[in-house]
Specification:
Elements lengths: L1 E6 L11 H4 L4 H15 L2 E6 L3 H11 L5 E5 L8 H10 L3 E5 L21 E4 L4 H17 L1
């Protein structure tokens, strides 16, 4: 079983950006933790980050055939990435949306997610642990289905 973990714009700057909001772990550290957790769950993690919506869509289209599910932190594309949302929907895969910060406790515009309507669930505000919880939840759901 393979799970795509996709990160959108500016998430390559984790560990350097506002640590009070995004925490102090780098994206590489989060990916390493997910790889370790994935191994313990018997799944392979396919990680990807881009600041370009088109590259994220290309990645989803290229890898959705071999993957069983998607965990995505769309970053700012959460609020306006309609073509990303369509690519996620078109993949036919279960999606869990993750946000490091609680998007509902921040600026009003951050509370709207165009991705949410295509996601099986959303985890917001748990920091890097949100990714691990998303992985555990997604794998648990996929194992129930088989």
């Amino acid at each position: 079983m393979k799970i795509m973990v996709i990160n959108g714009p500016n998430l390559n700057m984790l560990g350097k950006r506002n640590k009070a909001i995004y925490g102090d772990k780098t994206l590489a550290e989060i990916e390493a933790l997910l790889g370790k957790e994935g191994k313990s769950l018997g799944v392979e993690i396919i990680s990807f980050q881009s600041n370009s919506e088109g590259a994220l869509i290309d990645f989803i289209q290229q890898h959705s055939v071999e993957a069983s599910g998607i965990i995505i932190n769309p970053g700012a594309l959460t609020h306006y990435g309609f073509s990303l949302r369509d690519a996620l929907d078109d993949s036919g895969l279960p999606v869990i949306e993750v946000h490091l910060s609680n998007i509902y406790a921040r600026e009003k515009w951050r509370a709207k997610s165009v991705i949410a309507s295509t996601a099986k669930g959303q985890i917001s505000g748990l920091g890097w642990l949100g990714y691990v919880e998303a992985l555990r939840t997604l794998v648990g759901e996929l194992k129930k289905e088989t």
